[in-house]
Prior knowledge:
Blueprint: E1 5-12, H1 20-32, E2 36-44, H2 55-65, E3 71-74, H3 84-96, E4 100-103, E5 108-110, H4 116-150, E6 163-166, E7 169-172, H5 174-188, H6 193-202, H7 208-222, H8 238-246, E8 253-259, E9 287-294, H9 303-319, E10 334-336, E11 343-348, E12 351-356, E13 376-377, H10 378-394, H11 398-443, H12 448-489, H13 492-499, H14 506-516, E14 517-524, E15 529-536, E16 541-547, E17 557-560, E18 565-575, E19 582-585, E20 590-593, E21 607-610, H15 611-620, E22 624-627
Parallel strand pairs: 1-2, 1-3, 3-4, 10-14
Antiparallel strand pairs: 4-5, 6-7, 8-9, 11-12, 12-13, 14-15, 15-16, 16-18, 17-18, 18-22, 19-20, 20-21
Amino acid sequence: MEEKVVAIYLRVSSHMQTTDRQETELVEYANKFRLKIFKIYKDIISGFTSTSDRVELLNLIDDAKLHKFNLILFSEFTRLGRSQNEIYKLVKGFNSLGIELYFQKQNTTIGSQIDKTNQLMLTFLSISAESEIQLFVERSISGKISKIKKGEGYVGGLPPLGYKVIEKKMIVDEKEAELVKRIFNMYNEGASTYEIAQTLNNENIDTIYTRRTNELNIKRKKIGSNTSELKFENTWNIGSINNILKSRIYIGERTFLFHMPSFSDDDIDPLFKSENQNSKSKKTRKILEEVKLSFPQYIIINEDLFESVQKRIYENYNFKNNNYKIKNLLKSKIKCGACGGNYSVLKQNEYQSYRCYNSFSVGKSKPKKCYENLNIRQSTLNGLVLQLSYWKFADFRFDEYSKNKSQDLMKEFEALTLEINKLNESKKAIEKKWVDYFNKAIKFNIPDSEISKVNKDYKKNNKFIDGKISKYKIELNNITEQIQKLKDLSNQSSFMQIFNNLTKDKDGVKALIEKYIEKIIVSPLVGRYSLVQVYFIDGSEFTGTVKSGKYRNEDELFFNEITGGTERIALFYTNEENNRTINFDYRNKKFHYNGKNKNLLKTEKAGDYSIEEFLDMLERNNCKISHKDFEYNDKYL
């Protein structure tokens, strides 16, 4: 009878553990059945590491290919691999070499020829082993979360801009924090990410990559290690600025993702490769746990500023246009009445125009979406909006309105704050419920499928609450801005002084528009006419008409002998706060009039009017306004 030669394979997960027990038991088994031991292979390494990093396993495979033994002994299935896929591919590989495998804990031998019974058993045992590993992983995650909390949020690696690590604890770096604040404030005040990046580059301010590389090199020099050279150019770009602006760590929030370990078999002999390797990339690996934690000590940016920046990022992402960089007065306020999109500015021949961003295409990445909107000359629309604004504020009762409106806004603010507090309490409650359940699940060995189901519900509820809180915070930020604007609004003399010196203080006019106009809706009407609806922060709406920039509209021009300048004629209408006598339905191209504006439309009857009928009605009642063109854009940026 031919003597059986065996190999023993041992693996533990860290240097703190020992293979002694595994080795003793397997050697005793070999001696009991008079098996000759060729070699004992020992890997002391994490089982979450790829197979190619397990040196002794690779040596075992090489010797197996040379047929130096015909049986391998393992203490249990998990010693061979951490996933069903990994275990199965290794067993199949050894099987193709005619080698048997014995697993002591399961008291199972898989022969050199895998029949249907063995294949069924192998599948069952490998699934069981993977489940055991997954439960172990989830238990370890609970421990890691605890360590993260105790370690004040630092989990190793290089700290983000604005922070430094001292004695394994991450703290705010005051000097870098000032740079973070500057970036947020620049963006919030209207600078683009491109402009911010260019400013920092022009000032030769080091990027986060350069800073951290230099810091590592200082540490390496101290211990005599080789230093690293910069692999990338030391320049700020749009991506690096965006990453900073979107990072919630600056308001003290961190999200930790725990992924299923990878089991890639790179560099393994083709005999042992699987057709569908699990990727090392975290993007393709299953997320076992997502944990959001708060660290007040990390706060650099206040929440109001952060939410304001997120709002602008969202709007710029959905309606941005990088093709034109022309200075303008109204672009940030204009919305398209046809599609809801933002407006862009562009140069057409000798003048600049406003145009719906969705009304033109930018290659395959941005197809045309809006087919109705018209280009409008900037100076014409600027002049109309400023004239409507002048009419609005000429005899406005600022103090009375500001006081009443502020009181209403404060009530809204308090109600929203109460809702946010309730949501935060609900969030704490469901988080506590999940933690209690998870601890119970570990203690009583509840099946993974049940844990996964409860965890899925927990994440869904948590995400829903986070969404509502974020929405309410944006509303709170908007209310705070409105209250401040109302305080400024009460200073009528300051407003009128700016308005009476339009040509001398263009920046003041820009600030005026930003403060007191909520939005401007521009909708195509008929022919070359567009409707311009200017909504002020008090809820009132002043409406005017304007023609397309391509249209020869000399018939609308006249020379005003009083002001000594050329002006345009436009039709207009007003809707005061809480007294909307006219509503425009763009979809059905109808104006609905309730018959109650006797100052402008006198004896006109209530009802629905087509666009042509409405324009005729305004003409008939002499609802006309004259305005000058206002050139705000002196040059390209």
